[in-house]
Design goal:
homotrimer; mainly alpha; about 70% helix; disordered C terminus; transmembrane (chains A, B, C); transmembrane helix (chains A, B, C)
Chain lengths: ~210, ~210, ~210
């Protein structure tokens, strides 16, 4: 594997995702095995669901073993420095955001390579970026956080859309990568800085006798 | 896509399933992104799991894009009219029941087309009909409702069984469709009208020291 | 299907897993349909996820129908004798442990047959042994028990490792089966007898204003 800028970003993203999974697992007081599993699924879950849905099997991480080792090492790091990770908060947030951008790109690309409809490719991009976190939350028995703080996913969606538009305009691949990841990253940074949220729509409760449909 | 009666029923079912997902998400106060995702997985989740298990990938909705648009439009409708949906309760219940019947049929059919054992085809029919709701409930962090109010699934199972029997008897396809969907629909209507439930079996609790196996 | 020792162990394991699923479902007061589904996914869930991830579809139980019938019969047994199962606690624990050993072996084997990296084969072994229980717990809305009492999974991991090492040493298949299953079984028996647990790592909570990363 040659280390292009894209690969380096992919690695940083994987590291951040694995650490966020490990932290989540430690906060739920899972034991060491649980910590590894949750770190692992957070980092590779989005790509795995994408691969399964399009039939790209064995799924990617089974054939690109270096990520398995990377996640293992990162998880050990997260366990050892669990009380120090706070000092890395800003770096981790940045890596996480980079990961989101990169994973979105790989998802869209896989969709295009498989000749799928642009809207499906956008969905695959958002899925690759966010579904690792969804599985993490399901395994930790929580409502997935992206369904409550969704700007996260919205950043992916808009980035993926940018990718598709540039791709249709036959822009050079490097520029597509750059614009897509910058789109995802800057939306996320702005959203977090200004505490933006998307609206939710809570229906007025009917009288309880009428409540079940 | 030509609009046969079967297609129309399939569309009505998809609409009802998407609305039930959107309502569920709004009741859990998810944001707009969460509402779309839950509506989507409720409508296509059953067929997706079926496709993944039998290896029919990319899964159906990736290649039949019209459903993606349909669910998007329906979800916007559900959000806008969230406080009025109560007036549509009866129509939605009917659509939902129709969807159950139609989805059961498509599941059984896929099983037969793939040369699987009849009992597996029946399972695929029930799965296609009910697992969208199962994923909806898992994502919303609830015990899946079909495991507690299971006549829903039982209707699918009996309908799917009817399908297989008629198929073995080499009955005409249109008649199979009709009988299967009417079976599912009428079981469900009767069950809801007379508040029928299946038994549950709660074991007598052993003394707590013995409780873990 | 000829009944080798391996098949008999596989059947005992399936029986124990199905019963553990049925018990779990009855304890959550699910109805009869839910009981069957949970028994079923507990028994075949691990192998199903393994098959889906490597692209071995239709998944095994769809083509080896005898397991579907076996699980059905076992579940009926579990329901009828739900208040007597306590007397079988020791046998069930033994069967469950045997199942863990056998399922680990089948998982590793599938990995090797598909030419996957040894570490991936080990992961597939552990997955096949434990993920049925993970899905059971997710469907019952609990944090998967293996993430909290993980020696269970660790037994699989060490057994799978033993398998791979012996395989690389070109040891005879029967001996590999024997050693692997004895490894898994004896680790589990020792762990339960001496109440061993693996450590968990709960990070010191930062002040709440700093808590979200």
């Amino acid at each position: 594997m040659e280390l292009s800028l894209f690969n380096i970003m992919d690695i940083l993203g994987t590291i951040a995702f694995a650490i966020s999974g490990a932290l989540s697992a430690m906060n739920r007081r899972l034991d060491i095995f649980g910590i590894f599993i949750i770190a692992f699924v957070t980092a590779i879950g989005g790509g795995t669901i994408r691969d399964v849905l399009i039939g790209n099997t064995p799924v990617s991480w089974m054939e690109n073993i270096v990520y398995v080792y990377l996640i293992g090492v990162v998880t050990i790091f997260a366990i050892v420095f669990r009380n120090k990770l706070n000092y890395l908060k800003k770096s981790l947030f940045l890596f996480d955001t980079i990961g989101l951008g990169v994973f979105t790109i790989t998802g869209v690309e896989v969709g295009i390579q498989n000749g799928l409809d642009p809207i499906i490719s956008v969905a695959l991009g958002a899925m690759t970026g966010t579904f690792g976190g969804v599985i993490r939350d399901i395994l930790c028995n929580e409502i997935p956080v992206i369904f409550r703080k969704e700007i996260y996913a919205t950043a992916c969606l808009i980035g993926a859309l940018a990718y598709i538009i540039l791709y249709k305009l036959e822009v050079d691949a490097d520029i597509i990568y750059l614009v897509t990841s910058l789109t995802v990253i800057s939306i996320r940074l702005i959203v977090v800085k200004y505490h933006l949220t998307l609206p939710s729509f809570y229906p007025v409760q009917p009288k309880s006798s009428e409540r079940r449909m």
